[in-house]
């Protein structure tokens, strides 16, 4: 669920996963696993990702 919304927001901005990794300082593979719902996102990661995507954490739930 979180991963799908993360992907949707990222794609709307035409932002690659590697660029998001640079903006968040979260490893590319970790972001990929979160986006594919293979790894649960932590609260601190959710905050950083939301900020990089220009939205609130609540918008991603």
TrEMBL record:
UniProt GO molecular function? DNA binding
Q: Where is the HTH cro/C1-type domain?
A: 6-60
Q: Which Gene3D superfamilies match?
A: lambda repressor-like DNA-binding domains
Name of the protein described by the UniProt record: Helix-turn-helix transcriptional regulator
